[in-house]
Amino acid sequence: MKKVALVLLLAVVAPSLALAWLAVRSLRDQEYLLQRQQSLLYQGVADAVATESQSLLNSYEREFAAVVAQCWPATPLLRSRQRSTINCACVGRSPRSVSR
Fold first, then answer.
1. Residue 90, class by beta-carbon neighbours within 10 Å (0-12 exposed, 13-18 middle, 19+ buried)?
2. Whole-prediction pTM value?
3. What is the mean pLDDT of the chain?
4. Whole-angstrom Cα distance, residue 3 to residue 8?
């Protein structure tokens, strides 16, 4: 009877345990691969959104620069005079209220 139990153990139970261990390991590997694929997919979507928003911001910047170029006087002498009268410390206040 002990011999039959030993044969049953070696022929059925041991390979079953080995196959169960391999199955669990394979499931963990598949889960890792799935998470990696999801991460790459999300990274691609994030990159696409970032690229689109960067191009949108660039177009806004170009539009803003065009508006400023139209509003800002074209004379270089006038620009230099305006820059010399603007003091960084008095931005937002009238020039008369700031003592020089």
1. middle
2. 0.50
3. 81
4. 9
